[in-house]
Amino acid sequence: MMITNWEISRKDHDLAVRIADRAVRQLHDYPDNQRTVLMDLIACHANGCPLYFEGLLVAEMLDFSHDICGIRDHINRDTGKLEGHPFTPRYARANHVIDVPAGVIAELKCRSCGKRFHANSDKVPTLDLDGLKQPICRRCIEGVNSECRRLGERPWPIPEGAYID
């Protein structure tokens, strides 16, 4: 019998706790408690299907419920692996991140307009909301910068390589 791996980073653990809290708060009629959701998330993440916790935490409700309920339905609690018919969480890291020498390119959702875009997650301009950095797309940041220049204020810096066009 395979032993479930429970080792994840402190950052990932803290995000998983916030996701589990959101699940029990917002998913009406969800049958599990916060601890069970947290254990399912950690088991999934550490045993073959790493999750994009930053994205899942702020995902739209349809995508959020798809992943939380799908993980619950497909996790083997003895091994931590997803089983059954081919189920992949929408916020599986493999669906959102590509490793490149210059950093990590991720599919992100703009906090301002809600559109999805690709950017270097280490360089993209963000807003800090409740301790979570929220990405801003090029179109929105350029609109803000246009208004800043009109008002004689300093525009937000856009680091080279932040956006993938």
If you had to describe this structure to a student in words, what would you say it looks like?
Helix content is 40%, strand content 15%. The protein has helices spanning 10-26, 34-46, 53-57, 61-74, 93-96, 138-150, and strands at residues 97-100, 103-109, 116-120, 126-129, 132-135. The radius of gyration is 18 Å and the shape is elongated. By secondary structure, it is of the alpha+beta class. The longest helix has 17 residues, at 10-26. It folds into two domains: 1-94, no CATH class; 101-150, no CATH class. The model has no long low-confidence stretch (mean pLDDT 85). The chain has six helices and five strands, in the order αααααβββββα. A hairpin with a 2-residue loop joins strand 4 and strand 5. Helix 1 packs across helix 2 (34-46).
